[in-house]
Amino acid sequence: MQNYIVKQIAVMLLCIVIGLTASAQESAIRIGKADSTSHHSINWDNLDPRAIGFVKDYLEIHEERLEKMKSWGMPYFLLIENILKRYRLPATLKYLAVIESDLQSNALSSAGAVGPWQLMPGTARDLGLTVTQSRDDRMDLNKSTHAAAKFLSQLYENLGDWLLVIAAYNGGPARVEQITKKRGSHDFWKIQNDLPAESRTHVKKFIATHYIFEKDGSETTGKKIPLNAITNQLTNEELSSSDTTTVYGRYASMVICKTLEIDIVRFQRWNPDFDKQVAVIPFGMRLPKEKIKPFLSNRNQILRESVMVLMKENSVYDNEFPETSIPHLVEESKVAIKKRSSKKNQKSSSSSKPASSSK
């Protein structure tokens, strides 16, 4: 009987070993396939050499999980993209929510950040979200994405580099701004060693995730995108009667044309995709020569009007979550939001006292 039991145990152990070996072989084959397909499908030419090693390592560890996310995460991505578009932000910033929380609304960090965008309580309240014991808008994908879009807009206005924006989103803007001033540079790769290790890694995770999903880079990963290549399509007369000036920010073509009294059709032909691109990359805007000086003289007024148009477009969202609360553009609204949040918290705490006392 004992010999029989020993034999059975030996057979079981042999099966386990064979099973593990087969599993290891399957894993090796799967990794090999990933290396031969995904690695080769990625456009490595547009990836900064200083990030290639990290991206390849990240790809081998996380590719399978993120490939699955492409399917189940589609509804989340569509919602996020639509909101980012309303703020004229690059759609690829949606991948920040992936590295922050894996799109999980109930994600909670040890520091107290909550939701798909991992917002801290104070930041969330400043951006118009309600954060109380009974309600936390940070867990609402719709509302928290609006808040994150506002925060990202603010960071980009101050830093002017998307990789620095990702670093500041992770470690806070004050630290990043201090380093950029000290080093006299807004180039992430030039100042990366001065950044906290966690923020540095966060940026590279974003780049890697972007490349896994898109197989290429974009303006948010530092890929150099050429300015509008319309010159070859213009007549000699148009070229001689026009000039370019570099702009970036939330300019609206309709406001520019109204202020400078320019034909909108001609402006759009000279500056294709202007409204989308100018908010995320420096844009070589082409204007009639006689309109360059008036634009430069009135650019601040044009920018303010453009921002108001943008906010008006977004004002239909939710009365409890006003789109006018972009902190870096309308300081008065930020103060109003803080007051409103304070009042809501006071009401919430006062209404919860009877319930707690009755227990």
Could you describe the 3D structure shown?
The structure is a single chain. The protein is mainly alpha-helical and 359 residues long. The chain has 2 domains: 52-221, Lysozyme (Orthogonal Bundle); 231-314, no CATH class. Helices cover 64% and strands 3% of the residues. It has 16 helices and 2 strands. It has helices spanning 2-41, 49-72, 74-86, 94-101, 121-126, 141-159, 162-171, 173-183, 188-191, 197-214, 236-240, 253-260, 264-270, 274-277, 289-314, 331-358, and strands spanning 242-247, 283-288. Strands 1-2 form a two-stranded antiparallel ribbon. The protein is globular. 31% of the residues are buried.
Task: Identify the notable features of this structure and list them briefly.
359 residues; 2 domains; two-stranded antiparallel ribbon; 2 strands
| Helix percentage | 55-70%
Helices and strands, in order, run as HHHHHHHHHHHEHHHEHH
Give unreliable regions as ranges: 4-37, 316-341, 350-359
Q: In the CATH classification, which architecture of the largest domain applies?
A: Orthogonal Bundle
The top-level CATH class of the largest domain is Mainly Alpha
Mean pLDDT over the full residue set: 78
Q: Compute the number of structural domains.
A: 2
Q: Going across the major beta sheet, what is the strand order? A: 1-2
Q: What is the CA–CA distance across the termini?
A: 64 Å
Name the structural class: mainly alpha
Rg over C-alpha atoms, rounded to the nearest angstrom: 26 Å
The tally of beta strands, per DSSP, is: 2
What is the CATH topology descriptor of the largest domain?
A: Lysozyme
Sheet-strand content, in percent, reads under 5%
The major sheet is characterized as:
2 strands, antiparallel
Helices, by number, come to: 16
